Amino acid sequence: MALNAPAISANGSAPRCEHLDGLAPVTLQSSYCQDCQAQDDRLATLLICLACGWVACSDDSPHQHAKAHYEKTDHPIAAAVEPGPVWRWCYVHQRLV
Question: Which residue, 76, 84, 28, 83, is CA-closest to 56?
Fold first, then answer.
């Protein structure tokens, strides 16, 4: 599955985020949080890193593996894996973009 996020904010009114510049389509590396699987915990909302395709549990999960991925790699933008409204989170700016 390839994801190609548009360069503008999801709602069209959020301030521009320069971390969206140069994002290329990425492919999901898995359909689950690999870190949670190692801990036998797979019930979290999933995010995909839009820099590399890494899939991890969201910040509202107990383990916050997506945030840990950002802290380890400095990949700033993540998006929801589940179908529904398109949104992206910038870890640098701590806001939706």
Answer: 28
What's the rounded Cα separation, in Å, for the pair 59 and 71? Answer: 13
- Residue 68's SS3 state is helix
Please say whether the dihedral angle defined by the alpha carbons of residues 69, 81, 41 and 58, taken in this order, is positive or negative: positive
Q: Are 19 and 90 in contact (CB under 8 A)?
A: yes
Q: Which class for 14: exposed (0-12), middle (13-18), buried (19 or more C-beta within 10 A)?
A: middle
pLDDT in tens, 58-87: 988 889 999 999 999 999 999 999 888 888
Tokens of 88: 């992206």
Beta-bridge partner residues of 95: 90
In Å, the largest CA–CA distance within the chain is: 40
Mean pLDDT, residues 33-54? 85
Report the run of H or E that residue 28 belongs to, with start and end: none
Q: Would you say residue 13 has pLDDT above 80?
A: no
